[in-house]
Amino acid sequence: MLVHPQFDPIAISIGPLSVHWYGLMYLVGFALFWFLGNWRAKKDAWRMMDAQKVEDLLFFGVLGVILGGRLGYCFFYQPEFYFSYPSQIIRIWDGGMSAHGGIIGVILAMFYFAKTRAMRFLDVADFVVPLVPLGLFFGRIGNFINGELWGRVCSADFPLAMIFPQAADGLPRHPSQLYEAGLEGLLLFAVLWIYSTKPRARGTVAALFCLGYGICRFAVEFFREPDSFLGLQALGLSQGQWLSLPMIVLGGCVWGWAARKH
């Protein structure tokens, strides 16, 4: 049986300044977005992207991820608390980010970018979404380093069974952070990157992201421990699964629309 390594969540300390691994993982994800986005801009000139637009997209995307992720957590997971104590919303350093909220934030950022550059939203979305899963991958690695968002209890004989001391119960659990990193991170990146290397009907790459992320997240939630303050919701599904279902429906609808149109 494995035991979580109990990494120090602080990567670097310089006097009173502390840099956390979780924050560094975000920075790595943003850096890869910039690097791969510029590479795609050079290869996909027909999409009217260039280095300046990639930088602008990154700037709006960072805002979308941070604001959307934080607000999504506050209102999807603990609305009563944050409505009662709205000053706590800005305390992002205390933790609490939602991947679904971050995705919504990025969608709004892409809408703004497309509108202000007189571009088609779906062209922007098709360009952006293959760059997103690596950010999700490093975010989940950050969760694993912190020993948070651990999985459900599993058999001690399971090869990946892991003890998370933060869980305080000593029971073997699934390292669900790594499952998510592998599925919604590496696997989804590979699928989207390969699929988008050839010209596709407008909107199908974005639709594939919605379908892929929704399905991967829905599946992994069966192995992830539900938030203690929420537990399982209707039909025995977790909050993450209920938030993933609209993404699956949206992806299917956009895919069907694009197939009929093109």
TrEMBL record:
Keywords: Cell membrane, Membrane, Transferase, Transmembrane, Transmembrane helix. Pathway: Protein modification; lipoprotein biosynthesis (diacylglyceryl transfer). Signal peptide: none annotated. A 1,2-diacyl-sn-glycero-3-phospho-(1'-sn-glycerol) binds at residue 140. It is an enzyme of class 2 (transferase). Its EC number is 2.5.1.145. The chain crosses the membrane at residues 20-37, 57-78, 98-114, 121-141, 178-196, 203-220, 240-258. GO terms for molecular function: transferase activity. It is a multi-pass membrane protein. It is found in: Cell membrane. Its main location: membrane. InterPro entries: Lgt. Belongs to the Lgt family. NCBIfam families: lgt. Catalyzes the transfer of the diacylglyceryl group from phosphatidylglycerol to the sulfhydryl group of the N-terminal cysteine of a prolipoprotein, the first step in the formation of mature lipoproteins. This is Phosphatidylglycerol--prolipoprotein diacylglyceryl transferase. The lineage of its organism: Bacteria, Pseudomonadati, Pseudomonadota, Betaproteobacteria, Burkholderiales. The gene is lgt.
